[in-house]
Structures are given as structure tokens and as C-alpha cells.
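Problem statement: downstream parser choked on a complex file, so we are re-checking the raw output for the magnesium ion run. The parser issue turned out to be on our end (a line-ending mismatch), but while we're here, posting the original submission so the record is complete.
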Amino acid sequence: MKSDRAPEYQVTRGSGETARPAPESEPGTRIPDPVLSVVVPTYNERDSLPPLVSRLAEACRALAVELVIVDDASPDGTGLVADALANSGSMPIAVIHRSGKAGLASAVLAGAHAARGMVISVMDSDLSHPPELLPALFEAIQRGAGIAVASRYVPGGGVDRWPWPRRLVSRVATVAAQIGLGLQVRDPLSGFFAVRREMLTEGGYQGLGYKLLVEILARHPQARVAEIPYRFVDRRQGRSKLSYGEIWAFLRLLVTLKVGKLESWRVGKLKM
Ligand SMILES: Nc1nc2c(ncn2[C@@H]2O[C@H](COP(=O)(O)OP(=O)(O)OP(=O)(O)O)[C@@H](O)[C@H]2O)c(=O)[nH]1
Ligand SMILES: [Mg+2]
């Protein structure tokens, strides 16, 4: 799916928009626009979303942050839970309701278009990604990194409670992306990262499957990448949405990006 056509969705912004005073604001002053937008795609994550929001609000107390939840009409009612959280006022939350399951990468791109922060962080809603790392990702961008990756595969990082076949698939896919696209990054398949907003709203993304970071890295080979270690925790609630279809989408994405890379190299040579 090409993601630069106008997405069909409905955005609701909860009362939390005005409920929490921003850090350093005078009592009674208007909450400033968020500097960090955290985009969280959800599909059947009813039980993990409330604890994620509490941990995220606590971890980001010192930042002007908004949460953008992108729900694809989850049959378990996650969208209603998201609306209730937005109206609870615990933090600024926007909820995007799409009409059906359309994939994680396209959900992130839809969230980025609705986000108002100058920095966008992306994370899963199943508590595999610790929200306590968000300030460090944000700071890495503030210090000049183009892309800040929460990385399982740098010293200090790792994966908890994954069976060996899952570890193997992750490692093989990582090496395929590194060799196939010439990426130096140790964890190019991470689903937990931060970038400047323009990097996600510039248009032309394939938005295929799960691995949006691979596409961002391939499109921005000159970007300075900071990798920050974290331990991925396997989900305890809900079920994985990773399917053979997603693996197939990943392979298609790699081939598309590789062909695009060869094409731009060929065009560059012809011009010389
Ligand atoms: N909006 C939306 N969210 C999705 C879609 N597919 C997956 N997600 C969300 O994307 C995140 C990652 O999906 P997961 O199923 O956790 O994938 P995973 O982390 O590779 O697999 P496990 O953690 O092992 O279950 C979760 O927050 C999902 O709810 C989708 O089609 N649309
Ligand atoms: Mg997960």
C-alpha cells in the first residue's frame, strides 16, 4: 500500500489536552504544544493499554508530551478503552480510529500525520517497549541524532523470554536487512525509535508490513543514528499479530528498497 494518499480515519482528542499543566508553566497558563508525540498503534490491546498509559505519563512527566493512539477497529474494544483514557485527563491523548486492520507501518504513518510534536517516537502497546526509555530517545534527537533507535542488539540490550525460533527469525531478518541494504545499524528492525517529525511526513513511504524503521533508514542513509540499549520484554497479555503475511511483507519491502537503491545508483551514474 502506498501511504502518501490521504488516509481515511477519524481523530478524537480527549479532555487531557488541557488537563495537565506543562512543566515550568505558570498556574492557569495554556498547555504548550507537545514537543514529543508518542505514536502507539493498537490492535486488540485492551488490557495492556491502560498500564502503558500510566507508565508513559509517569516516565514523561518532565516533557511536554502527547500520545497518539492509532486503533484499527479492534474487535476487543481497544478503541473504546483508548477514548476513555483520552477523556480521563491523565495526559494529552489523541485517538485515531481507522476502519479496519491496515498494518502497523501504515498506522504509524497515519499517527505521524496527526501528531503535533516536533519529535515523534514510535512504540508498541503491549509493554514490550519500556516507556521509561522515551526521555533518552528524545534527548538523543535533541543532541543532534537524526534517528534514535531503542536497540536490543547493542551492549546492555537484549530480549527476555523469547523462544529460540523467534530469536533466530529476528537475527536472520536483521542480517538480511543489514547486508541487503548496507545498513550499519545493529537493530534496524526495532519497533521502538524516535525521529524528527518531517522524516515521517515527507511522503512516498511504502508503509508495508511491520518494519517501518528499515524503510526510514534506507531512505536516510546519511542520518546520524544513535542506538540506545534496552531489554525487549515478551508480551504477557493479548496475542501476537506477527504472521506469515507480515514476514512476506518484510521480504517484499526489502526487495522494493533494494531495487530503489540500485535504481538511484544507476541514475546517479548516468548523470555523471
Ligand atoms: N493499528 C494497528 N496496530 C497494529 C497492527 N498490527 C499490529 N499492531 C500493533 O503493533 C504493535 C506490534 O504488534 P505485535 O503483535 O506486538 O508484534 P510483535 O511485537 O512483533 O509480536 P509479539 O510482541 O511477539 O506479540 C502492537 O501494539 C499491536 O497492537 C495493525 O494492523 N494496525
Ligand atoms: Mg509485541
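For whoever reads this later: The first helix runs from residue 16 to 19.
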